[in-house]
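Below is a filled-in request sheet from our internal design queue. Each sheet records the structural input a requester submitted and the sequence that came back. We keep these sheets so that new team members can see what a complete request looks like end to end.

REQUESTER: design group, bay 2
PRIORITY: normal
MODE: inverse folding
CHAIN LENGTH: 137
BACKBONE (tokenized):
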């Protein structure tokens, strides 16, 4: 009997995170959980950038905005700078900003492609007009 792709032969199988490595990690860390957390807090308070980033991005996520973000600028670069200001103020996370920046980048690519299409159409019209003039002469 062949296995079907995308179908589990045991849908009620072992849950994620219950493997031997996860259990070993949990058993080693659990007795020191509070001490590890306190150390992480102290590192963040003492200026450890990695710990600060961890707390800011994961443990203290940005609040849900009731107002939409105004990131619009004259250029994509202006919009990205506005986006970075929201990250710096803590209104959005760096991950959220990355996703929005990706959307801005795709939008810029689409606008560039549309501009190229318009230029190609204008060149085709100019070429057709030139050919018509040559034929009529």
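RETURNED SEQUENCE:
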């Amino acid at each position: 009997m062949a296995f079907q792709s995308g179908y589990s032969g045991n849908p009620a199988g072992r849950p994620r995170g219950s493997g031997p490595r996860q259990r070993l990690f949990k058993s080693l860390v659990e007795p020191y959980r509070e001490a590890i957390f306190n150390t992480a807090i102290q590192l963040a308070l003492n200026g450890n950038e990695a710990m600060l980033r961890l707390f800011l991005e994961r443990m203290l996520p940005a609040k849900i905005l009731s107002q939409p973000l105004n990131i619009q600028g004259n250029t994509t670069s202006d919009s990205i700078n506005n986006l970075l200001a929201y990250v710096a103020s803590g209104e959005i996370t760096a991950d959220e900003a990355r996703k929005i920046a990706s959307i801005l980048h795709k939008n810029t690519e689409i606008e560039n492609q549309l501009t190229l299409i318009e230029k190609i159409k204008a060149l085709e019209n100019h070429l057709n007009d030139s050919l018509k003039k040559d034929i009529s002469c």
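SHEET NOTES:
- The two ends are 77 Å apart (CA to CA).
- The chain has a mean pLDDT of 83.
FILED BY: M.R.
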